[in-house]
Specification:
Helices cover 23% and strands 39% of the residues. The chain has 4 helices and 10 strands; from the N terminus they run ββααββββββααββ.
Length: 171
């Protein structure tokens, strides 16, 4: 997996990272970008109808606190791209590019605020690393705080709250 990069998408701050998988795009799509596939690696239970404009619902499955977000599917091209709004102002685009044998998975999240960069980069890093391990890709299993501190040390902007860890403290 590539380490997350801080970039700009549509004039807003964004984080981007990518990973190589030893399977064709169609197989990765069904195992990673459908609601059932997302459930295996994404930190939220995800429900959506596979059509542009449909509502997408995220339910936190890692916290005792009930955290739900909704969004809208903005692009869906099986097996190439899934894009959706996330929460109030974020937009996520996941793409698959394949040579028929291997597939590059990329995720770009346009952030609501720049201070979310370290937090969200760490979250995507942990999630994509889990997806890699599920597909036999050698990816170290690091705890979220370790990943987060690496992004902070690299100068990614901080200051956003970290839900489920310390609701009262800004990190």
């Amino acid at each position: 997996m590539t380490h997350a990069q801080l970039t700009v998408r549509d004039g807003s701050p964004a984080v981007r990272l990518s990973a190589q998988f030893p399977i064709p795009a169609g197989k990765l799509w069904s195992q990673a970008l459908t609601p059932e596939g997302l459930a295996t690696w994404f930190p939220f239970q995800v429900e959506f109808a596979p059509e542009i404009g449909s509502r997408i619902t995220f339910t936190d499955k890692t916290s005792d606190v009930s955290t739900n977000f909704t969004g809208e599917i903005t692009s869906l091209r099986d097996p190439e791209e899934l894009a959706f709004t996330f929460g109030e102002h974020s937009h996520v685009t996941m793409t698959l590019n394949s040579d028929g044998k291997e597939t590059t998975f990329a995720v770009v999240e346009r952030l609501a605020n720049e201070n979310e960069a370290a937090r969200n980069a760490a979250s995507w890093h942990a999630a994509v690393s889990k997806l890699e391990r599920l597909h036999g890709v050698d990816s170290p299993e690091l705890d979220w705080n370790t990943i987060y501190e690496r992004y902070v040390d690299e100068g990614f902007p901080t200051g956003a709250t970290v839900p489920g860890i310390d609701e009262e403290t800004l990190v």
